[in-house]
């Protein structure tokens, strides 16, 4: 009775996670394209004497970079692309590798969760003070919102990876020369 419920719940969760990933990729792609377009136009406008330069271009690109960085943080967490020192991991026996992965995922999950809480209070403070950007006059809480969103999404990714590494047999880690996130089926009940 419980197993069919869990299987249907896992199917829904897989679809939600896939939708979130598509949204992350779409958002970062749109922001990157917009920043590139504004940068290109600003360079052209500065070279043509009769066209005014875009005063807000630098600020716009900075804020796009903030959103790309923090939403991209989650994408990197999912694909295991964050920079790390892994010489101890590479030189360890297979059983130790599993323990090291679990500890790393747990530490990353806790850090990202604490970072989310801290950033959320920072966003609340910016909202309370009604701070605005100097040139574009955008409320800064919208810009700062990238931090808790990216950290929360990273927390979810590290929590899913933690569950995976707890469930996987240590022998399965030894067989994979390079970890590929597409091979990880986090919600497989078998």
Rounded mean pLDDT is 85
Q: From the helix content, strand content and strand pairing, which structural class follows? A: mainly alpha
**Count of extended strands:** 0
Count of helix runs: 7
Distance between the termini: 16 Å
* Count of discrete domains: 1
Based on Cα principal axes, name the global outline.
Answer: elongated
Residue stretches low in confidence (pLDDT < 50, at least 5 long) are none
Radius of gyration: 21 Å
Order of H and E elements: HHHHHHH
The main sheet comes to: none
Share in helix: over 70%
**Percentage of residues in strands:** under 5%
Features:
190 residues, mainly alpha, 75% helix
Explained architecture:
The chain is built from 7 helices and no strands. The chain starts with a helix and ends in a 15-residue tail after the last helix. The model has no long low-confidence stretch (mean pLDDT 85). The protein is mostly helical. The chain has one domain (2-183).
Summarize the helices and strands and which ones pair or pack:
Elements: H1 2-47, H2 57-79, H3 87-91, H4 94-129, H5 140-144, H6 146-167, H7 170-175
């Amino acid at each position: 009775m419980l197993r069919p419920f869990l299987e249907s719940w896992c199917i829904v969760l897989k679809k939600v996670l896939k939708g979130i990933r598509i949204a992350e990729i779409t958002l970062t792609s749109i922001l990157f394209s917009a920043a590139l377009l504004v940068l290109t136009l600003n360079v052209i406008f500065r070279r043509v004497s009769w066209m005014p330069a875009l005063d807000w271009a630098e600020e716009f690109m900075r804020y796009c970079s903030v959103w790309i960085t923090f939403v991209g943080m989650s994408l990197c967490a999912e694909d295991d692309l964050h920079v790390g020192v892994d010489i101890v991991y590479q030189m360890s026996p297979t059983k130790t590798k599993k323990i090291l992965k679990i500890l790393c995922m747990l530490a990353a999950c806790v850090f990202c969760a604490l970072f989310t809480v801290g950033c959320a209070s920072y966003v609340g403070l910016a909202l309370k003070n009604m701070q605005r950007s100097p040139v574009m006059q955008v409320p800064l809480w919208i810009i700062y919102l990238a931090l808790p969103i990216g950290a929360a999404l990273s927390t979810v990714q590290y929590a899913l990876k933690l569950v995976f590494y707890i469930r996987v047999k240590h022998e399965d880690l030894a067989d994979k020369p390079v970890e590929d996130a597409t091979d990880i089926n986090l919600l497989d009940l078998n």
